[in-house]
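Thread: quick sanity check before group meeting

JM: Hey all, I'm pulling together slides for Thursday and realized we never actually wrote out the predicted structure for the chain we discussed last week. Dropping the sequence here so it's in one place. If anyone has concerns about the input, flag it before I start.
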Amino acid sequence: MESIKDVVKSRAREKNIKMLEVSESLGLTQQGMYKAFRDKTIKLNQLERIADVLEIHITDLLPAKSVSTNIAGERIENYGTRIDNNKFFSGSQNELFKLRSENEKFKATVAQQKELIERLDKEVEFLRAQLSK
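JM (edit): ok, ran it. Output follows.
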């Protein structure tokens, strides 16, 4: 199975980013970063910073673990990795895709609501100015 370190190296290579840049973003030397990968002591916030540097979603750092079928007979890829010692993250790529889609829709809805609130605030200001004349 491919490790997180392998995934990071591959993604960095794809984006022409040196591993030194990745390690520096964590405030670590390259050796320190590789040791954290090897000892499985890499922390979630460090993975988030790595994902930011590589301009990818954090879940893209998780290596594929196995392929199986769910109860409906659909083929899914399961993944999982230890993060920060005993914490374990697992799920399926299908679930992640759905969550990402929902998250993007939610972000768009929030942005629209903010615009609407700003527009309504301006209208309220205008009406208050009209009433005070």
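AS: nice. Residues 93-132 form the longest helix (40 residues). Residues 78-90 have pLDDT under 50 and may be disordered.
JM: adding both to the slides.
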